[in-house]
Prior knowledge:
Elements: E1 10-18, E2 21-29, E3 35-38, H1 45-53, E4 60-65, E5 68-69, E6 80-83, H2 95-99, H3 101-106, H4 109-122, H5 138-151, E7 156-160, H6 168-185, E8 188-193, H7 196-202, E9 205-210, E10 213-218, H8 220-225, H9 230-237
Parallel strand pairs: 3-8, 3-9, 6-7, 7-8
Antiparallel strand pairs: 1-2, 1-4, 4-5, 9-10
Helix pairs in contact: 4-5
Amino acid sequence: xxxxxxxxxxxxxxxxxxxxxxxxxxxxxxxxxxxxxxxxxxxxxxxxxxxxxxxxxxxxxxxxxxxxxxxxxxxxxxxxxxxxxxxxxxxxxxxxxxxxxxxxxxxxxxxxxxxxxxxxxxxxxxxxxxxxxxxxxxxxxxxxxxxxxxxxxxxxxxxxxxxxxxxxxxxxxxxxxxxxxxxxxxxxxxxxxxxxxxxxxxxxxxxxxxxxxxxxxxxxxxxxxxxxxxxxxxxxxxxxxxx
Length: 243
């Protein structure tokens, strides 16, 4: 059993420009209460996540993890794990060495591999440990990417469209599996998605982002009870991706 330490709250107040577009959003995420950032394509959701992770510099605002202002720190010093949309596994490394990557940066290869073993077991990857990413299914690759992110012992976890790379037929079961792993992580978690189904299963609260601005926030039930924009009404009415 891997003991999870007490987790801090995430506070983000981000103002960032990407080309002609500007994203302005502020939110807080308590540990154990995941937030889904939902919105149409081009709303700025992934840019917002990248700004929190430190992959995109912010023009103004702050990113705070617990009592620590991490807004000026490079990504590797923020203790923020990221599950990227396309998982971005290292193609030349085995599953074991992908999961061991963070530990390898801190010590020997042998020690890193030993540290990876409990995570391989937890995520059901032990039998796949010697495979390369190109030999994995979409669901297996997702688990490897998540295990790699969590094995780095982050204080905050960010997931960027975690279901989008999967076939529609796989999404229902793997969505539930991912939700279980997020609950086990127990820290402040932000999930970027355009899917109501993802938001319903993976998150406790929803923040709606449109054209780089927050247009609504609350639980999914609260948002559904009083949709504030035409996009929210359309999103609630469609069931095309609710499989």
